[in-house]
Write a structure and sequence with these properties.
about 375 residues; Alpha-Beta Plaits; six-stranded mixed beta sheet
């Protein structure tokens, strides 16, 4: 593989190479695309268990007396709704209502939070937070970037908790969804174990210092029912659930209202661009997020494909598309930019006009 001195490596880079992973550039990091095949890895997560190295994700600690006040103002969800030991899906928002990033926030204590952000937005998010610390004189708030010091391993699949239970004395089944505990895992103390993930299947995410990441990775893979998985399967897994991907399905030009993420907007609190989102939601004049199936065999929607009406007029576009190994057909996410109602929506795939079927998310049902 051609080396690039500009790309970062996770602490497990050599482990991935030894396992035969095909490595690709993802958000400035060398990340495994796949080890065997994306189909094999996808179905292992749906039927049994797989492990992902997602250490490229940004990891911020935000702490201090006014950390809650700061987070509340620069995000749309309501942090006061969660307790210590809980996590929350949220988004940073700009002055025009666009999504700066989507993130998961872990409440470590009343004045300390762990923020997991997208790798491509680490620098942007750091500047955004620091600018607001200075602007509102929250000088008691401290931002610490642990991105390159800690690793994240995601063990996902219906059997993931059962297989990994032998590695910890924490009862994994008793950790509720979007909750976490800190304890011993694989003989390592002070490991954060979270019931979260980006696949929709049951699973946990392990947050551990880099010096201990390789031991935990190897101990997990010694459980022969768990296979290593890459971002190709992670993408198809998240799409089957309809999870948005930053840079494709959401961006600074798309508001959470448009992205059909109004459930993470809490208008009872004050936050940036609150009035803009209230107006947008009230008037209803915005592009509409959609999810759809392509029933025709071997026709897979891809990012950038046009959506048209029966008169061949462009009415939208695809942001994400993939072949669903579970449904055995193409699935996609996108936006309708036209306010006009249409009876039928078509997609252009290889210069062919193909009817799509609008469906509700998630595309498939999984046990969580």
């Amino acid at each position: 593989m051609r080396e690039s001195h500009n790309l970062k490596k996770t602490i497990l880079y050599d482990n991935h190479i030894c396992l035969g992973a095909k490595m690709v550039n993802y958000s400035g990091f060398y990340i495994p695309l796949q080890y065997t095949s994306s189909l094999t890895e996808h179905m292992s997560v749906r039927n049994s268990a797989g492990v992902f190295d997602v250490s490229h994700m940004g990891k911020f600690i935000l702490k201090g007396k006014h950390s809650v006040d700061l987070i509340q103002y620069i995000t749309t969800n309501d942090l006061s709704k969660i307790k210590i030991g809980q996590a929350q899906y949220n988004c940073f928002i700009n002055k025009k209502g666009g999504i700066i990033d989507d993130l998961v926030i872990y409440k470590i204590s009343e004045e300390k939070f762990l923020l997991i952000v997208n790798a491509a937005n680490i620098e942007k998010n750091r500047k955004w937070i620091k600018n607001h610390i200075v602007k509102y004189k929250y000088y008691d708030v401290e931002l610490i970037d642990h991105t390159l010091k800690y690793s994240i391993l995601a063990i996902q699949g219906p059997m993931s908790l059962f297989y990994t239970q032998k590695l910890t004395n924490i009862s994994l089944n008793k950790i509720s969804f979007y909750h976490f505990e800190v304890g011993e895992f694989s003989g390592i103390k002070n490991v954060l174990i979270s019931r979260t993930g980006y696949t929709g299947s049951k699973g946990i995410e392990i947050y551990v210092s880099n010096k201990n990441a390789e031991k935990i990775w190897n101990d997990i893979l010694e459980i022969d029912k768990i296979i290593p998985c890459g971002i190709a399967s992670r993408n198809s897994l998240r799409l089957e659930m309809g999870y948005r991907l930053y840079g494709q399905d959401i961006s600074e030009k798309i508001t959470p209202v448009e992205a059909n993420l109004s459930w993470i907007i809490k208008f009872e609190k004050e936050f940036i661009a609150k009035e803009i989102l209230q107006k947008q939601k009230k008037e209803g004049k915005y592009k509409k997020f959609i999810s759809f199936l392509v029933e025709e065999k071997n026709k897979i929607p891809r990012q950038g494909h046009l959506l048209i009406d029966e008169n061949n007029i462009s009415i939208g576009y695809v942001t994400s598309g993939v072949y669903s190994p579970v449904l055995k057909k193409g699935i996609g996410l996108g936006y309708l930019t036209s306010q006009k109602k249409t009876n039928s929506i078509f997609i252009f795939i290889r210069n062919q006009k193909i009817l799509i079927k609008m469906v509700k998310l998630p595309f498939i049902k999984v046990q969580n």
